[in-house]
Amino acid sequence: MLKIAWSAEYAHPLPQGHRFPMLKYELLPEQLLYEGTVSQENFFQPQPLPEERILRVHDARYWQRLRHLELTLSEIRKTGFPLSAELVDREVRIMGGTVEAAVFALEFGVAMNIAGGTHHAFTDRGEGFCLLNDIGLAAQYLLDEQKAQQVLVVDLDVHQGNGTAQMFEHEPRVFTFSMHGGNNYPLHKETSDLDVPLPDGIEDAGYLQLLRYHLPRLLEQVEPDFVFFQSGVDVLATDKLGKLGLTHAGCKERDRLVLELCHQNRVPVCASMGGGYSTRIADIVEAHANTFRLAQQIFF
């Protein structure tokens, strides 16, 4: 069964000017239920991740300052959101969602989080709408609990997974692969185990050719026993922040490639949704919904 982490807390309301990015967390599960892709049985309410798990990858001083709302104005600006206790609580629940989804993926082959993909969170700071790093936390959990020995992070958000790269730069059991806009945020890139910077405006054919070249080779060379998939849909040509040229069909084919390769190689995969900033909310929801539709078709 496809298990999906979702909580009403994901759609936590923000002050005017920040609400639009949160709408997809309400609309996406509604769309999936309406069209019959999933039922209520597929969703699970994640628990907040315990502090001791957060401290496995995040700096204790940073976590305490975040939890007590003591970040500086400059640090808050870099996260992109007004800081509040509700926002931190939301983030901690999202972290729990990806960790729990990873455990479900071990059982069912695939599991997903409606939110997550917070790959700009470093060990000691937040950036780019990310306060804590769900992929990093979940990967470390699997390693700590000996549920995985070699993790592959497949980060296909338009922005480099800089926080995840920094977090695991000295951890050979986590291989970080980021295929992202070379001229996009962040200005200063970290060094992933494999970075594939893309030119502005790249379209479906060129993008998919690169992915078809790199991903099968990584599965063969890295030999992961678990994959985390950051499936941001800000690769779309309609995205306000993306600078790439993918169509909905191209983005869907991207997801198909990742999920089919994991299924064929019998590697469990946990997907987090990542970014999406198209002007029309329908474009964002439709692209994300394709990821869930494909997971159902391929694995079940």
From TrEMBL:
Histone deacetylase domain: residues covered: 24-289
Protein's UniProt keywords contain Hydrolase: yes
SUPFAM superfamilies in alphabetical order: Arginase/deacetylase
Matching Pfam families: Hist_deacetyl (PF00850)
Keywords carried by this UniProt record: Hydrolase
Alphabetized GO MF terms: histone deacetylase activity; hydrolase activity
Highest taxon in the source lineage: Bacteria
Coiled-coil regions listed: none
One GO term (biological process): epigenetic regulation of gene expression
Family per similarity comment: Belongs to the histone deacetylase family.
Protein name per its UniProtKB record: Acetoin utilization deacetylase AcuC-like enzyme
